[in-house]
Amino acid sequence: MLEANRRTERLIDGLLVLARGDHGLDMVEAVRFDRVAADVVSAFPGVTLRSRPTTVTGDPVLLTQLVTNLVENGVRHNVPDGSVDVRVTPDDGLVVSNTGPEIPPDRVPELFEPFRRMTPDRTRSANGSGLGLSIVASIAGAHAMTVTAQPNPGGGLTVHCHLPPKTSRPERPTPCAEGSSST
């Protein structure tokens, strides 16, 4: 019963973050995205980070959630002794890549839909609520970022959060995809 309550709590928390990202940003500030990534990655042994100073305008709590969801997914959906690499630069934005199982390219868009996974059972797993990448897409949209994903040769996934043009100010979420992901 305690485990069921924990899953329900995680689901509710995920839905609240998703709703907050879909609502847009009420207040924004300059956020050192590279520092956010460094803080998140420091909690995950074995995850590598390459970064350069990168500042974005947005909500630091939501940006932390975005990076956390991507890194957690990279670690959770990996192969034994696999790797998770994180890169943050002004030119690349945020890129998270892992060496997980093979993902058919035509199934990648499903990963960004709430409660969808590559495995049939998405809602009863103790390993998450099935909202991780849909939350990423929502937060990215609220920050005028574009999210794309592509399977890696040999297995795994690379998710790329492209930074908005310097002249863009995040206000409301916008659909963003590159053929393989939707937000």
TrEMBL record:
Keywords tagged on the record: Kinase, Membrane, Phosphoprotein, Transferase, Transmembrane, Transmembrane helix, Two-component regulatory system
Where does the protein end up?
Answer: Membrane
Example GO CC term: the record gives:
membrane
Q: Which InterPro entries match?
A: HATPase_C_sf, HATPase_dom, His_kinase_dom, Sig_transdc_His_kin-like_C, TCS_sensor_his_kinase
Q: Which residues form the Histidine kinase domain?
A: 56-167
* Catalytically driven reaction(s): ATP + protein L-histidine = ADP + protein N-phospho-L-histidine
Asked if the Swiss-Prot or TrEMBL record annotates the protein with the keyword tRNA-binding, the reply is: no
* A family per Pfam: HATPase_c
Extent of the signal sequence: none
Q: Name one GO biological process term.
A: phosphorelay signal transduction system
Region (Disordered) residue ranges read 163-183
Q: What is this protein called?
A: histidine kinase
Name its species. Nonomuraea maritima
Q: According to the entry, what is the taxonomic lineage of the organism? A: Bacteria, Bacillati, Actinomycetota, Actinomycetes, Streptosporangiales
